[in-house]
Design goal:
This protein is of the alpha/beta class and about 350 residues long. It folds into 2 domains: about 240 residues, 3-Layer(aba) Sandwich (Aspartate Aminotransferase, domain 2), CATH 3.40.640.10; about 100 residues, Aspartate Aminotransferase, domain 1, CATH 3.90.1150.10. The protein is built from 9 helices and 16 strands. A 7-stranded mixed sheet has the order 2-12-11-10-7-3-4. It is globular, with a radius of gyration of 21 Å. The two termini are about 25 Å apart. Bound molecules: pyridoxal-5'-phosphate (PLP). The site of pyridoxal-5'-phosphate has 13 residues, from helix 3.
Amino acid sequence: MSIYNFSAGPAALPQAVLKKAQAELLDWNGQGTSVMEVSHRGKPFIAVADKAEADLRQLLSVPDNYKVLFLQGGGRAQFFAVPLNLAKRGDFAQHLVSGQWSKGAVAEASKYMRSDVVASNYEKDGNIFVSDPSMWSVDPNAAYFHYCPNETVDGIEISWVPKTGDVPLVADMSSNILSKQINIADYGIVYAGAQKNIGPSGLAVVIVRDDLLSYSRADTPAIYDYALQAKKDSMYNTPPTFSWYLAGLVFEWLLEQGGIQNIEAMNAKKSLTLYDCIDSSSLYTNHVAPQYRSRMNVGFHLADTSLNDAFLSAADKAGLKALKGHRDVGGMRASIYNAMPLDGVVALTEFMREFERTKG
Ligand SMILES: *Cc1c(COP(=O)(O)O)cnc(C)c1O
C-alpha cells in the first residue's frame, strides 16, 4: 500500500530527494563522512551552498539586484527580522490580514514597530473572502507592506499581488513558494520557512532587494541582520548545513520536473481534482470563496461532524496520513505541496467518495 502524507508542515519531501540523501548519507561527495560533518567554510560545502542558491535563482528567475539568504529560525523568525531590518524606512508598517499566519506576523512585528492592519477577511453568503485592494489603500509613508499569499491554516490563497508603489511589499510565502511562477521584482522581500515546499524545518529562505539592506535598527541581532548575512553569504554564524544541502536537492528535483511552470500546472490539476470531489459531494464542504481557495492547503468539513474520527482513522488505515485540520479550524485539511504526487490526491478523492457512499 502506498503511503501519502498530507501533513501541513513539516511536510512530505520528494521520495527521490530522500533516497538520494539516504544513499550518500555515510559517504558524501567521496569525503567518507556525511555532509553534516564537514566545515561550512570548506570548498565541498561552499559548492553545495552556491549550487542551491543558483538553482533557486534559476527556478524563480531572481533578478541580480536581489540577495538570497539561507537563515535559521524558520518562518516566524522573519516576523521580527523584517521590522528590525526595515526600521529606518519609516515609523510604521501596514499589514493585510488574511488568516492565522498574517495575523501572527502582526502580533510579533508590533513588538518592534507600529504595525497597522489595513483590512481583514470578511464573510459573504457563507463564504470567506480576502479584502481586496479596492477596500484599503497603501500609505506611501509606511516602512513596508506585509501580507501572506497562502494561509496554511485557513486554506486561503491570494492570486493577486498588492500594488504598493514605492512601499516595499513583503510576502510570507512559507507555504506556497516554488508552487507557481511569481515575479520577484513585484516584491521587496520574499521569505519562507522551509518545511512546506523547500526542505527541513528550521531553515528560512529570504530573498531581499539590495536597496533594502540599509535600514536596520542598530540593535538588530547579527544573525538576523540581512546586510551582514548578505555580506557573509549567510555564513556569519554556522548555517544549518544539512537543511541547506537538502533544500538544494529539492531545487534540483524541481528543475528535473521541468521547473516551476510544470509544477504549477501539476498543482492546479491536483487542487482542482480535490475541490471537484468536495463540491460534488453532500458530505464535504469548503467555505473559502472559490477565487481564494488555496492550491496548497485544502480544508474541508464533514457535514456530520460525528463522523470525523471514523473518517480520520479509516483514512489512516488506507495510508492517507495527517488529514486532521488545524485545531483552530477543525475538520480536515489536505496539504498538497509540490512533493505530493497527483496519485496521492486521486487516492484521497477515491477514499472520500467511498467513505461518503458507505458511511456518509
Ligand atoms: C509554517 C508557517 C510559518 C511558520 O514557520 P515556522 O518555521 O514554524 O516558524 C509562517 N508562515 C506561514 C505562512 C507558514 O505556513
